[in-house]
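User: Can you predict the 3D structure for this chain?
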Amino acid sequence: MGGPLAGVRIIDISTILMGPLATQVVADLGAEVIKIESLGGDDARHVGNAPSPGIGPNFIHISRWKKSLAVDLKRPEGREIVLRLAETCDAMLSNIRPAALGRLGLDYAAFKARNPKLVYVSLVGYGRGGRYAAKPAYDDLVQAASGIPMLVQRALGGEPRYVPLALADRIVGLQGTNMLLAGLLNAQRTGVGQEVELPMFETMVQFVMGEHLGGQSYDPPTGPYGYPRLLSPNRKPFATRDGYIGVLPYNDAQWTRFFAATGHGDLMTRDERFSNIGRRAANIDALYGLVAEILVERSTAEWLRILEEADIPAMPLHTLESIGDDPHLKDVGFFQTIDHPLAGRMRTMPQPGSWSETPIDPAGPAPALGQHTRSILAEAGYADDEVERLIGDGVVATAD
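Assistant: Here is the predicted structure, written as structure tokens:
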């Protein structure tokens, strides 16, 4: 593989989504990621409709390019395999609870003893200094604890609801990539590794309250919690005569052009509620209500044409079914088709972005469970007879 991270070697002891997503980014960018799996495989392998066992759709999209080593970490020989690998790796990332890793003898001290330059990244539910530190953490629980369902209820009414995405897992996973890369950069500069901990709960509270601390940011407070525009019940896709459209004029120039294009050119001068950005923010419900009344008068296609001509930010609404036909995504080759040895023909999504000097390779297939067990052990110095003994004793497993 090429890419800007070619030559970087990472041990991935993570499962499901948050940790695997963090390492997926670096794998796409060229790092060698050795995915440590139990003999039964990552649970994500077994979720969703799949043409072949152990290659579920969620798994294949967060395991591209990774190498799979199936090993029983509860066995001393399994622990030794991982620590021997650490001697030639740059980092280890895990989202397994630290206490569990400690019981396996895979805490930071064990890795540091083998490789002081190694960066040990631990994605946890709650920071170690707090009373929640030992609690289990899943996306739904962290969404709940960080206030997201109640925020949705406050904006839209009805019952509290989770966002229909694994939002916390994905946000914290991507932040985990940042922590991993920063740790690698520091180790490269100083020659010294370190332990890095990233908690889900605190990360998501910062994510939510960065928008909604509002007037409570100051002492004394200057106003209530919340960002009014985001909490407006009228902040939603607007109905047109035949469907819906996303429209967001934001600054004074855009609102001036919007009202002119929709036949209300003097509105900002005759209605002081909408005359500048501060007053519009204070009257956001009324503003969005007015926009809703205007946009229902024409079809979506008409509005997209009118708003594009006026240089007003607007987009059509996609569904899960229609987004694959988006013309821009087709232009950039976003969805790609590959031949997977187990899944057959399949659609995948490579890492977005481009690199002028270190281009990344197209999306590769996710590994079968234990597909690389033999080659990884050989690279770690295990002789052929030792590998066969480990397989025979049930310490490791291979795809064959």
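The mean pLDDT is 95. Residues 247 and 341 are 44 Å apart (CA to CA).
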